[in-house]
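Budget justification, computational time. The allocation requested in the original proposal was used primarily to generate structure tokens for proteins on the priority list. As evidence of use, we reproduce two of the resulting records. The first is shown immediately below.
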Amino acid sequence: MKVVIFCGGFGLRMRSGVDSAPKPMMTIGDRPVLWHVMRYYAHFGHTEFILCLGFGGSAVKEYFLRYEETVSNDFVMSKGGQRIQLLDSDISEWKITFVDTGIDTSIGERLRRVRPYLEDDDAFLANYGDVLTDAPMDKIVDHVMTSDITASLLAVPPQASFHVVEFGTDARITGLRSAADLNVWINGGYFVLKKEIFDVLHEDEDLVGDAFPRLSAMRRLEAIPHHGFWAPMDTLKERSQLEELYRSGKKPWALWSHEARQQRAQVLEKAPDLPGDDAPMVVAI
């Protein structure tokens, strides 16, 4: 399946000083978070990517045009550096289409603008370029493709970094609860979309805000609950947390590494079944 990645936003909450790099190009370790997202999909055999570019698009193009395999792969050097033999490769099997989809364009319109590159596909994957997970994408795809739904999204518990405040008409607080303790799910991206999505997605509209409510009313939108690892990189704090995981060697999203594959096998044994028709839930999109 082709993978559409939205990587054209400004990422204002990640701005620091004169830094002008687009958010998906902010690094975790030696590679941009966008690379980590793409490597995740490649692990499941999805190696054809369509990048929806906008702000900082030239930085994305330049990075891949000058890609250095030796940064993240072992290699043998001989003849004083004149000969390099790679022992592994990241992107040799990848096909990447770079599409300028505008600066102030909604995600839905970005998707519409790359539709010509999806015309032969009955279904495809889509995601933000700055959120990581260890979700079993192979099982998710199999589930969606054997169902009558048009789209699915990964539903994850809200981040535990804020609390919900309960108070009465006198403004006296009656309770505080962590958001993680509420029976609420949020949109975690990692969409699986069938081509019928374009029947409900109109010009200049948003995918989540406009098209998804229409699908929901038609009962053609499904949430895939995931209790495993999921983390966005919207702020400098979140980037720092992901960097710490990377430095410690605990990279749950890096399913392509030997250690992560072992962790994933353990996680999948405990993973909940995908929801049936009688499984109610609340998803904040």
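The second record produced under the same allocation is shown here.
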Amino acid sequence: MSPTVFTGKTCVVTGAGSGIGRALAENLAGRGARLALSDIDGSNLAETARRCESLGAHVSTALLDVSDRDAVSRYAEEVVAEFGIVHQVYNNAGIAYFGSVLESDFADMERVLAVDYWGVVHGTKAFLPHLVASGDGHVVNISSLFGLLSLGGQSAYNSAKFAVRGFTEALRQEMIAERLPVRVTCVHPGGIRTAVARNATTARGIDAAAVAEIFDRRLAFHSPEMAARAIVTGVRRRRARVVIGWEAKGLDMFQRVTGAGYQRVLAVTNPFTAAADRNRK
């Protein structure tokens, strides 16, 4: 491993207060990176900063709602003012939501897109000129397994994560075509044990706790630390795509082989749909 990939580099991580974001921050801290960490939850963010500082990292923190375009733009300027340069941006912040198209309110769907898609766009756009100026930039955008295939009840989340994938892959092509010094990676985690599912909102009448319990019991196979290691390895190896977890890789292959056929299979085996039907209030 070349230590220069991370040592002394300024790395921005959104959603750093817990889950994959916290694990990423700690992993990067252990590799000698300088960290600009943000989250909407100040107490969790402070704990992440404490852990990273105990590893010897230079850390700055900021409360940030990534759906607020102006706030993200101001934040980018503040990071550059403090660190002088930015090398890597990990657009990780996200939220989850469960509800069918028929029963979901527009406001709930719009909130998922505002955070999970527009948050990625805001972070990329705000920092991209600085990444180019660094001469050694890297954008890492967190999509999902649900950016590779769709699942009933996840239409809003699917929409956001497919959009992240399309945006990120287009950006990578632009950086290559324009010969700009910015590498681009799209990440597709499978079942990671984070607070995202437990904090998810749902359509009216659906028991959020029951849906979260299904995710934790049947789908949360991997630790955030495992996901962070996979992401950092992908960055080091300059991979365009990182798919995390045996189940994510298997389902990705399944949908490639079956084409649209996978949709009929998942329609009748979807554990979230069954849980929602049993637990509607």
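A brief technical remark on that second record: Residues 105 and 186 are 29 Å apart (CA to CA).
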